Amino acid sequence: MRVLALLDGTLADPDAPLIRIDDLGLVRGDGIFETILVVDGKPRELGPHLDRLERSAAMLDLPAPDRAGYERAAKAVLDNWSGSAEMALKLVMTRGVEGGDGTPTGFALGLEISPKVLAQRAEGIAAVTLDRGIEPGLAERAPWLLLGAKSLSYAVNMAALREAERRGAAEVVFTTSGGSVLEGPTSTLIAVRGRTLTTPPATLGILPGTTQAVLFQAAEQAGWTVVVEPIAAEDLFTADAVLLVSSVRSITRVHTLDGRALPDSTALHAELHALYESQY
């Protein structure tokens, strides 16, 4: 099932033509998006996702997103959803038509979550480390690379996932050339040691995670220590748990990395997933 809504709150047919062939989001990937988990009709962290959409727009020199319009479109999707209890709500904004008047293209789309993702949540995943070609300080030295923006330019991320599949894995952990952990193509990485959760800093040029932020808040309230600092990729093999988290993926454990089995983190995963869910 899919439900498509425009920013004025009206519904559109998701199977009918909507995007012009000269839309810059289509021909150049020149745009931004957010994906939000919705459970029982309630979007999770809608405000922080809209905040991040605004930050991404500023990084791409796009007009400020019509926040009220996206809220209307989201409501229209949710009010007309009759599919599964869990769904993905995608908010999209492009630079609009090439050579046009600068009016952005914007819409909200409700989608079913794939059975593959739901199975990975429960069973965990195998991942591989891949060099992203990013070094510390690059985001500040070269802001035009848009590191940390959630743009539509996902060709590299999708190519990385195809490489993971060729290597017999389902996911990727990006690293710097120096061996520091970055993030997954569509997720934030968290390493667990004892009662400490660690995630890499956004200053490395990665996207700050909304799900990671919620989990860290819940963990702190429960007495865990949370740390934002660089992580060496080699240290993942001795961590008590390696997690990839995102809105739709939720809290997913990595059970195998680069073909090597990681310590069994089933119990830790269950505990941290329960902490995350306790926020809702």
Automatic annotation (TrEMBL):
Coiled-coil regions listed: none
Keywords for the protein's UniProt record, in alphabetical order: Lyase
A Gene Ontology molecular function term of the record: 4-amino-4-deoxychorismate lyase activity
Keyword DNA-binding on entry: no
Entry's Gene Ontology BP terms: carboxylic acid biosynthetic process
GO cellular component: cytosol
Enzyme nomenclature, EC number: 4.1.3.38
Top EC class, one word: lyase
Pfam families found in the cross-reference section: Aminotran_4
InterPro entries: Aminotrans_IV, Aminotransferase-like, BCAT-like_C, BCAT-like_N, Class-IV_PLP-Dep_Aminotrnsfr
Family to which this protein belongs: Belongs to the class-IV pyridoxal-phosphate-dependent aminotransferase family.
Protein's UniProt name: Aminodeoxychorismate lyase
Organism encoding this protein: Actinosynnema pretiosum subsp. pretiosum
